[in-house]
Amino acid sequence: MFRKPLDLGLVVLIPVLFALAPLAYNNQLLLFNAMVFLALAQGINIIYGFTGYLPFGYVGFFGAGAYGASLTVMFLHLPAPVAVLLGGLTALALGLVLSPLLRLSGVYFAIASLAASEAVYYVIANPGLVNITKGPYGVSLDRVYSPEFSYLVMAVIVGLVTAVVVYLKRSHLGLSLKAVRDDPLSSETAGIDVKRQRMLAWSWSALFAGLTGAVFAWQISVFYPGTVFDPSISIFAIVFTLFGGAGTVLGPILGTVVLYGVYNLIGITEPQYFQLIYGVLIMVLVLFLPEGIVSLLKRGGANVL
Amino acid sequence: MNLPGAQKGWSPDMLEFSLIAGILFGLFFALVGMGLNLVFGVMRIVNLAHGDFMMLGAFGAFWAYNLLGWNPLVTIPVQGLAFVLAGMALYYLLVPRLVALKDFEMISLVLFFGLSQTIEALAVLAFGNNPRSIFQPVFGQAPVHFLGRTFPVAWPVSAAVSLFFLILVYFYLYRTRAGYATRAVMASRDEASASGVNVDRISALTFGLGLLLASVAGMLSLFMLGSVSPDFGGNITITAFAVIVFGGLGDPVGTVLGGLLYGIGLMVMESYLSSWANILPYVLLLATLLVKPGGIMGKEVRHV
Quick one: DSSP state of residue B279? Predict the structure, then answer.
């Protein structure tokens, strides 16, 4: 699976760096959120970079994971790591329910997935379901609150999602997914099971968003439906991925580090300036640099993973 | 969605109220979808910034009313002309570049998404983050009595303005030379071009027209939806997309039908199941795309 030392290096190095980072830098929540966006950006990368399907409603899986985990803690009183796993499975189940969306072509899929995430949000936030989901009033997980443990679990998830992307990049599966993306008809003729492979990428992508959402819920422990279904979460993850370069391992990492860094410099105090920067950035990118900033490295002759 | 005046609770003649209000709102939603559908029809581009152009139209009317004292009905033609010109400029700036690219539909979706974010950010910088509304009685004080029901006067006025523009679009498409060419481009870009239609000019004009309709619909949103804030665009774009998919993509007549059915459905839900009404556009969109992608008119306009 890991044919080059760099592969294993990335998969191990990134989570270890994040795990050690709080010793050098004391804003742990910022580091945690950086990991959240890194995992989400790689999750988008799995589905968009390898199949060409862009899920505008990716946050739906994140929210489903957060609520799956929270309800597990509140009603089943299970320990937090188990709840995280069940949160991931909740998102995976949602992904299976929404799999007919993969029948739609790219543009329709993108908008339909956004509609699906909004629909899930309005169901969970509905006052009629207050006995189950607490409706718009939000949930509290103070019983299992543990910022240190959840931080480390998030680092592990970042390692896992990186491993999956490295695997896709190196394996026959990733190669055939890209063939499907570029020319579905010829790939099908060449004996690739197009539907099954798209389904696989979709499931991995949903699972990781769910796990990330679940750990996010655990970390912040008190949140509202609007917090975990905020459409700007999808937007950030998509922009980070596109900026860095989809379909590569390094792209989403670079994109998240650079843009989330910029966000923390100006985005928190002046969110509209950050929104302006990335809005213009997206337009410039798709017209002039559709492969993201890693393509600059490629042009420079580097062999980019 | 915050609908002023919608009544809550059960009552036998509420259905009648919902139906009439639904038709008034339906005409408005048909107008909301029409601009998006015309742009889609000629260019096969989903203008994700449609709702943001509506927002700009609403803010234009708001400032014209507050700074210059203009009645929103007076603002329409002045502002409309500006939107047509802006739309044509935007078309020539962006689209010819886009069409040359590989995977043009997906890239244009992302591009217009970027445009939407840019407009929203600029609007916050220019106007601040507050929702704006225009004093409702600008169209007259008295509520309207109709079939024993009472409506805010802004509803029938907005519906009438919507109807006027829908009829205008119909005459443009079916009774003028440019409209004839527009429908040819909608049917097939290549064949229209081969028949001597100036596809770029027609598309630019249609893009301008789409933005004009968005500006009018945005102005009416101030009355039909209560208020408009800079982040108004995202959800209304999805609603507009739901309406046009439901009516049939690229089919202007279907959009009117889709808008009316959507308006009636929304008002019925507001009356009887109000807490679930805001889920309607999303479920409608998903159901149509998955079950009947050609829309209710059933014509397979496009294989999805």
Answer: G
Are the Cβ atoms of A126 and B275 closer than 8 angstroms? yes
CA distances from B62 to A64, B20, B118, B155, B218 (A): 39, 28, 21, 18, 10
Span B218-242, pLDDT tens digits: 999 998 888 888 888 888 999 999 9
CB contact under 8 A, A114 and B117: no
Rounded distance between C-alpha atoms, residue B27 and residue B15, angstroms = 18
Predicted model pTM = 0.88
CB B138 within 8 A of CB B6: no
Give the amino acid at A11. Answer: V
- A139-140 and A222-223 beta bridge pairing: antiparallel
- Enumerate residues 6+ apart whose C-beta is below 8 A from A9: none
Mean pLDDT, to the nearest integer, of B83-108?
Answer: 86
CA distance readout (Å), B154 to B63, B141, B195, B221: 19, 10, 46, 11
Q: Which residue of A has its CA nearest to B126?
A: A272
Domain ranges across chain B: 21-127+159-291
Q: Which of B113, B121, B275 sits opposite A272 (nearest CB)?
A: B121
Which of B276, B287, B302, B242 is closest to B32 using CA atoms?
B242
d(CA A246, CA B68): 49
What's the whole-number mean pLDDT along residues A47-75? 94
Our CA-based measurement puts residue A53 at a distance from the nearest CA of chain B, in whole angstroms, of: 9
Q: How many residues belong to chain B?
A: 304
Q: What residues of chain B have any CB closer than 8 angstroms to a CB in chain A? A: 46, 97-98, 101, 103, 105-107, 109-111, 113-122, 124-125, 234-235, 238, 241-242, 275-276, 278-279, 281-283, 285-286, 289-290, 293, 304
Helices (H), A72-129: 80-97, 106-124
Cα B285 to Cα B232: distance, rounded to the nearest angstrom: 19
Would you kindly state where each structural domain of chain A is located, as residue ranges?
5-229
Instruction: Give the up-direction half-sphere exposure of residue A104: CA atoms within 13 A in the CB hemisphere.
Output: 27
Phi, psi of B45, rounded to the nearest 5 degrees: -115, 130
Per residue in A275-295, pLDDT (tens digit) is 898 899 888 888 888 888 888
The answer to whether the complex's ipTM is over 0.90 is: no
Distance CA B19, CA B25 (A): 10
**Residue B52 structure tokens:** 């943001």
Rounded CA-CA distance A72/A207 in Å is 17
What are the helix and strand counts (H, E) for chain A? 16, 2
Owner of token pair 């699976």? A1
Is B259 within 8 Å of A109 (Cβ atoms)? no
Report, in angstroms and rounded to the nearest whole number, the Rg of chain A calculated over CA atoms. 19
Contact present, A201 and A43 (Cβ < 8 Å): no
In the chain, the amino acid numbered A10 is L
Tokens 């320990």 — which residue? A79
Across the range B164-174, mean pLDDT stands at 95
Side-chain-facing half-sphere of A150: CA atoms under 13 Å: 29
Helix (H, G, I), strand (E, B), or coil: what is residue B145?
A: strand
Name beta bridge partners: A222.
A140
User: Quick one: angle between helices A106-124 and B104-127, nearest 10?
Assistant: 50
Segment A136-194, tens digit of pLDDT = 888 888 888 888 899 999 999 999 999 999 999 888 888 888 888 888 888 888 888 88
